[in-house]
Amino acid sequence: MFELKGKIAVVTGASSGLGKDAALAYAKEGANLCLLARRIEKLEELEKEIKALGVKAISIKCDVTKEDEVKAAIETAVIEFGRIDILLNNAGIAVRGGVDTLSEEDWNRSMDTNVKGIYLVSKYVIPIMKRQNYGKVINISSINAILADKNDIFIRHSYNASKAAVIGLSRGMAASYSQFGITVNSVCPGLFESEMTENTLFKSKEFLTKYNMLCPANRPAKRGELNGTILYFSSDASSYVTGQHIVVDGGLSIV
């Protein structure tokens, strides 16, 4: 039920972290990949890894906040593969600061990448899925859509707001597009090591000690531990599941 052989998946923010891990997981299940990110060099490295697994992959330099780049990228994907079965909206950023310290520029940067980026990519993918009468859209939200933290290192009000918006947007899309055979769900990761966290949260022993004490799993997530949830939402195993969010946080949100 989790097999993706022959499916075409578009992954944004695929150059590193959770996006890269998910792209490799898709490839191992037989999907062909269209990789989108701003750093083309890293995408091309990943493309080689994916092709070594025996599937097809293309890399496209794309800033998800720029509509012309998104439109061109999706057009290229359709020319190359003919269809798009899966869209993983993974591109995202986290900007530290509360509303009393955030600049308007930083607030807009968070919203543009984390929310507008999903809107723009979906804007050009959804019509393709509607014509196919089939599609799986997975939007990456965050545990910070649900939980906040007063610890200075974790105050990110624009991140809280933008990731909560991802859940709301996913529900709206799910309600509208289910009639076209399209499911839309979101995933809320807890603390995973990535470029976004390795130079801040993972370097703070004080923060990790506190996190491990609060989290029932007594540890942050390991690389790859988000892949199962993403594959579930991307496959026909979730054919009757839409408008939902799954929290992958080692139990942090239940205590």
From TrEMBL:
Record PROSITE patterns: ADH_SHORT
Key words of the record: Coiled coil, Oxidoreductase
InterPro entries for the chain: NAD(P)-bd_dom_sf (IPR036291), Sc_DH/Rdtase_CS (IPR020904), SDR_fam (IPR002347)
GO molecular function, one term: oxidoreductase activity, acting on the CH-OH group of donors, NAD or NADP as acceptor
SUPFAM superfamilies: NAD(P)-binding Rossmann-fold domains
Coiled coil regions, renumbered to chain: 36-63
Entry's Gene Ontology BP terms: bile acid metabolic process; fatty acid biosynthetic process
Family according to the record: Belongs to the short-chain dehydrogenases/reductases (SDR) family.
Protein name: SDR family oxidoreductase
Organism of origin: Clostridium paridis
Organism phylogeny: Bacteria, Bacillati, Bacillota, Clostridia, Eubacteriales
